Amino acid sequence: MSGSPPVRRDPTTGFHLRNAGPSVVARLFAAADRVAASLCAMWLDLDRFRQVNDSFGYAEADAVIALIAGRIRSVAGERATFLRMGSDEFAILLPAVETPDGERIAGRLLATIDQPIPLAGILLRPSVSIGITWRLAADDPLSLLARADRAMGEAKRQGGDRFVVMAVEPPGVASAARSARQDLEIESVLHASLATGDLELHYQPIVRPDGSVEAVEALMRCAVGGRQVSPLQLVAVAEKTGLIVRIGEWILLQGARCAARLRAQGCPTKVAINISRLQLCSESFLSNLHAALICARLPADAIELELTESLFVDASPVVQANLRGAREAGVGLAIDDFGTGYSSLANLKDLPATKLKFDRAFINELPEDRRAFAILSAITRLAGELGMVVVAEGVETAAQLAACEAARVDATQGFLHAKPMSEDALSQWMETRKSR
């Protein structure tokens, strides 16, 4: 007799994985209905846990997570159901627990999690923000989890190391509820799309002043309910849930295959692929990169990786080894979004980058802002002496293009040349340019 497939567990904590949340909670709904019992949901988020990742690395952080998961399990008890909702976020489902008992359990969780943890010669003092809610008559699994998440967010806003009860939706949270639910829907679609191959890449050309194509940037696209989701929202959800690593592997392979098909078509050009911090922190990154090149039968210099400058200066040995390995293999490295955030001339001279991409926010000021033009011109000359190609992103008008060319940038990217397009449309676009 066939039954439901087993639910996979998080290897670090033994908790259910986040994507199992809706089905796990639906089963708890059914069990509660049979005995007319309540269902309490708690969402826990460790306070300032990123400092542990940044200071000690992911192996030590996982050890801390495993220990804290044990503390959570010991307080909540055997009747509870546990989910790992993010790297340092958890959900607990407690059947037949009413308000006083729920608050007592939350208080014990605060006290237990707060106990010091010895780590690399120091005593780490963790704390947690907890949101508590109870099932309402109109709830479905997603709305229950989303309300617990919002209650946790309120605990964070109040300073953390506390719990907040949200028994009903307060006025004015409809928009936040829609946003939280949409994130869960996007996550569900991303899981399904990875399984079915329904994710899609679009490509935006990067064009030199003579009209030739310097490269094309691969950009992920995904639809939820027939509506295209903002790439920024897609990436945010993928990074929060850890899906960005699997998605990144898929993009590497598909981008390499696209580059190979373009070469076979007589349009050899590099494909630029955005790389996330989580990908670059993985010890399997280089093997995945080489596997993509081998599967596509593609030379390494046909692929370019786009990273923020903060990744180039990341002190992690794994990150630095992955950067060195990619360059030694012949893969290009581009500094994305230059001109914002961590951008620094002191860093620029030491980075192993082959390309520098000026952020669109900087290009938006052209041609009116003469200081912006002066900076663009100066950095372009400097980057050229360092052996880097300079690209201006977000070029949307002829005046901006003229300013970029006057500053002698090597190539430009933006709607003025072409919007992101499917691979088939890109092939036609490239063929059209060949005939010029």
TrEMBL record:
It comes from the Bacteria. InterPro entries: Cyclic-di-GMP_PDE-like, EAL_dom, EAL_sf, GGDEF_dom, Nucleotide_cyclase, Rev_trsase/Diguanyl_cyclase. GO terms for molecular function: cyclic-guanylate-specific phosphodiesterase activity. It is an enzyme of class 3 (hydrolase). Keywords: Hydrolase. Residues 183-434 form the EAL domain. SUPFAM superfamilies: EAL domain-like, Nucleotide cyclase. Its EC number is 3.1.4.52. PROSITE patterns: EAL (PS50883), GGDEF (PS50887). This is Cyclic di-GMP phosphodiesterase Gmr. It comes from Candidatus Accumulibacter adjunctus. The gene is gmr_6.
